[in-house]
Amino acid sequence: MLEGGKSRNGGNVEKQLEDRVYTVKDIEALPEGERAELIDGKMYMMATPTLTHQDMLGWLYFKIRMYITGKGGLCRVILSPFGVFIKDDEHNYVEPDVTVICNMDKLDEKGCHGAPDWAIEIVSPSSRTMDYITKCALYEQAGVREYWIVDPKERSVLVYNFEHGTSGRYTFSEQVKAGIYEDLFLNMDEAV
């Protein structure tokens, strides 16, 4: 995530992003191909993901989707870009890398309205503070049941089970249990 940065034509947009309160309408008005998130009315431009990020994203989506399908589950797993109106208001909009939603009433063609059950973020160099601090606080406050921070640089997965008030850090070589499911374990070494 980048706050501010360069616009499509090379001009600095950082000042614009700090001078006002943004809404979902501002996100919708972005030029095609530009993506941003809103947290309490502050806009954060999104950087293009790396190959490692995309490999991990695809692997996580595939593994979680196969698990849910194999169990005949009712939850939906959706990969980014997919809009999550996290507080179901005009000033908060995020695009977790992987989103699992178990209440289908929250879904429509525009996105998820309210907190998903499980959100996963894959850390990139420009998103460290956003993923570890800003989004962690937002997700907990909004009622996300479980939040994973997958960090390729550190080769670790930080798991927050907000529903039960627990957290833990795992290496990529360890089996990581998904808290919202009884028997889903993922090993990130398989993804890289």
Describe this structure in words.
The chain has helices at 14-18, 24-28, 51-70, 128-142, and strands at residues 36-39, 42-45, 76-79, 84-85, 98-101, 107-108, 111-113, 118-122, 146-151, 156-161, 166-171, 176-177, 185-186. The two termini are 22 Å apart. The chain is 23% helix and 26% strand. The strands form four sheets. Strands 3-5-8-9-10-11 form a six-stranded mixed beta sheet, with helices on both faces. A three-stranded mixed beta sheet has the order 4-7-6, with no helix packed on it. Strands 1-2 form a two-stranded antiparallel ribbon. Strand 8, helix 4 and strand 9 form a beta-alpha-beta unit. It is of the alpha+beta class. The protein contains four helices and 13 strands.
SSE topology sketch:
Layout: H1 14-18, H2 24-28, E1 36-39, E2 42-45, H3 51-70, E3 76-79, E4 84-85, E5 98-101, E6 107-108, E7 111-113, E8 118-122, H4 128-142, E9 146-151, E10 156-161, E11 166-171, E12 176-177, E13 185-186
Parallel strand pairs: 4-7, 8-9
Antiparallel strand pairs: 1-2, 3-5, 5-8, 6-7, 9-10, 10-11, 12-13
